[in-house]
Backbone:
């Protein structure tokens, strides 16, 4: 019922959005006498804001056509190099990269948004590295015959991606995947796998959520697991390929994130409205661009979501040494030669200070020379991996760390 009700609302809003867009264009058309009046511009701006907020959104594209390195522009090549039911592996490169350019696997979050949320991360790191990224599938688009997908499968996918890319690869995990990426590294370390990562960078991830709990953590621990199963899990409607699959819908995830900072989002749209009234289209387009990405959401399987709630936020299985993969305990002490970099944002309201840094202590058999911690001052959660502070202050540290650990 929940999903069907949402689909009905989405259909209604889609029509209203199209109507509002047409009316906004009509009101600003030079042939319309009202276009010369201030009231016409105000009404058109209001309709434009409503149209943008209500319009349906699909999966965005990375659309990275060029990259500039040392003042020289290079054309970018994007390719799907491995197809898998729950997530493809993408590769980004350009002709200015040397033959021995480092290889970097970026693990995107499976948390309601598409991998394109990390567009800025990819664009910056591909300046000097061949970049691969996990392009997780929208669970409602995966047919039931593809089977289930849980935390064990997530870890297996990461190991499989690293095997596909080959030895001497670096790995970077942003937010949610810090836990499975860390676990995959430990598993591969225990097996002395030739494709275990040279370095692992964890950015704003919930490795140990007992450290500086945030409102996100509080929501996960104040209710039993059964509450989440009964209140936020829904079945995919019949008109999708994944009909019948149980999922945590992306629209619920988005609603949760917006409610955390509702005032901020309302002010952003108010500012967009004022920019449109003033004719400042560039500033309005900047806000629109952010929300185009932010409001593009996808579903995740119920198995993966519920296990993440249970083991990462409620039981703290990884830091307690109780996390298992395919029935076998994961030994974080097996990480002995993968260099670890933990990055946190001073103003991160999703993963509190100390949650990611905990990974450095948990890898107790890793030499201190192979550990580094970076606290990015005045940086929030999204600023860790996108924006000017990421490009100018954080990415150079990641590149430096990778260069310092280019071999074992």
Residues:
């Amino acid at each position: 019922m929940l999903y069907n009700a949402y689909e009905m609302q989405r259909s209604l809003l889609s029509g209203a959005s199209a109507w509002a867009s047409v009316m906004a264009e009509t009101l600003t058309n030079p042939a319309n006498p009202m276009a010369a009046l201030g009231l016409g511009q105000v009404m058109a701006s209001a309709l434009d804001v409503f149209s943008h907020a209500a319009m349906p959104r699909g999966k965005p594209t990375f659309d990275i056509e060029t990259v500039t390195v040392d003042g020289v522009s290079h054309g970018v090549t994007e390719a799907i190099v491995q197809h898998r039911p729950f997530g493809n592996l993408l590769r980004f490169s350009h002709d200015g990269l040397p033959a021995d350019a480092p290889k970097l696997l970026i693990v995107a979050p499976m948390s309601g948004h598409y991998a394109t949320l990390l567009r800025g991360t990819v664009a910056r790191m591909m300046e000097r590295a061949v970049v691969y990224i996990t392009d997780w599938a929208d669970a409602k688009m995966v047919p039931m015959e593809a089977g289930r997908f849980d935390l064990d499968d997530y870890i297996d996918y990461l190991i499989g991606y690293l095997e596909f890319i080959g030895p001497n690869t670096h790995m970077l995990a942003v937010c949610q995947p810090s836990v499975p990426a860390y676990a995959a590294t430990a598993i591969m370390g225990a097996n002395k796998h030739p494709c275990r990562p040279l370095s692992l960078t964890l950015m704003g991830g919930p490795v140990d959520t007992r450290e500086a709990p945030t409102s996100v953590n509080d929501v996960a621990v104040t209710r039993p697991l059964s509450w989440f199963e009964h209140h936020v899990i829904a079945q995919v409607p019949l008109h999708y390929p994944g009909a019948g699959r149980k999922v945590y819908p992306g629209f619920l995830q988005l609603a949760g994130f917006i409610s955390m900072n509702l005032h901020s989002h309302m002010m952003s749209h108010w500012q967009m409205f004022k920019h449109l009234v003033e004719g400042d289209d560039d500033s309005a387009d900047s806000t629109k661009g952010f929300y185009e990405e932010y409001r593009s959401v996808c579903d995740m399987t119920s198995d993966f979501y519920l296990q993440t709630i249970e083991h990462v936020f409620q039981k703290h299985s990884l830091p307690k040494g109780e996390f298992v993969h395919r029935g076998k305990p994961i030994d974080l002490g097996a990480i002995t030669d993968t260099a670890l970099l933990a990055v946190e944002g001073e103003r991160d309201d999703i993963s509190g200070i100390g949650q990611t840094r905990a990974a450095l202590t948990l890898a107790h058999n890793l030499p201190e020379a192979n550990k580094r911690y970076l606290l990015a001052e005045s940086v929030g959660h999204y600023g860790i991996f996108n924006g000017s502070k990421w490009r100018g202050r954080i990415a150079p540290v990641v590149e430096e760390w990778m260069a310092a650990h280019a071999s074992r």
The CA atoms of residues 80 and 90 lie 5 Å apart. The first helix runs from residue 2 to 28. The mean pLDDT is 83. The first strand starts at residue 66 and ends at 69.
